[in-house]
Amino acid sequence: MNFLLDTHALLWWLTADPRLSSVARNAIEDPDASRYISSVTPFEIATKVRIGKLDFAREIAENFDNYVTAGAFKCLDVNTGHALLAGKMPGNHKDPFDRLLAAQCKAESLSLITADPAFAEFGLNLIW
C-alpha cells in the first residue's frame, strides 16, 4: 500500500494519540507499506507551532528530520505539477495545505491517511 499522511495523522502517530484510528495505525505500521509525508508538512507544523496552534508539536518541528528517519517515511517534494493541480482542482476546500496534499495524492496515485472528511470532494482513496 502506498499512502501520504495528512499532518494531523502524522502528529497523532508520532505522539501515540488515541484519536488515530486503528485502521490508520495498522496501515502506518505495515512493514510493506510505502509511507510518504509531503514536503509541505513540516512547513505546516512549524507555521502552526509559531502561531500557537500546535504548541505540543514544538519538539517535533525542531527535530523533524529525525522523526522522518525513525518512522521510515519518504518525503514527497511538492513540484510545479502538484502546485498547478492544487490550484486547478475544483471544489470548495480552501486550505492550501490540504489542496497540496490532495494534488500530490492524485498525481502520484497515493491514498491519503486522514480523519478529515473534506478530502472526499477530491475523489481520493481515504484511509481512516
Describe the structure.
The chain is built from seven helices and five strands, in the order βααβαααβααββ. With 128 residues, it is α/β, with parallel strands linked by helices. The protein has a five-stranded parallel β-sheet with strand order 3-2-1-4-5. The longest helix has 13 residues, at 96-108. It comes from Rhizobium leucaenae. InterPro entries: PIN-like_dom_sf, PIN_dom, PIN_Sll0205, TA_system_RNase. This is PIN domain nuclease of toxin-antitoxin system.
Give a topology summary.
Blueprint: E1 2-5, H1 7-14, H2 22-29, E2 34-38, H3 40-50, H4 58-62, H5 64-70, E3 74-76, H6 80-88, H7 96-108, E4 111-113, E5 126-127
Parallel strand pairs: 1-2, 1-4, 2-3, 4-5
Helix pairs in contact: 6-7
> Whole-number average pLDDT?
95
Q: What is the percent of helical residues?
A: 40-55%
Unreliable runs? none
Indicate the CATH class: Alpha Beta
Strand order of the largest sheet: 3-2-1-4-5
**CATH architecture grouping:** 3-Layer(aba) Sandwich
Distance between the termini: 14 Å
Q: Class by helix and strand content?
A: alpha/beta
Q: Give the CATH H-level superfamily.
A: 5'-nuclease
CATH topology: Rossmann fold
Major sheet, described briefly?
5 strands, parallel
- Summed up, the helix count is 7
Q: Give the tally of β-strands.
A: 5
Order of helices and strands: EHHEHHHEHHEE
Q: Specify Rg, calculated over alpha carbons.
A: 14 Å
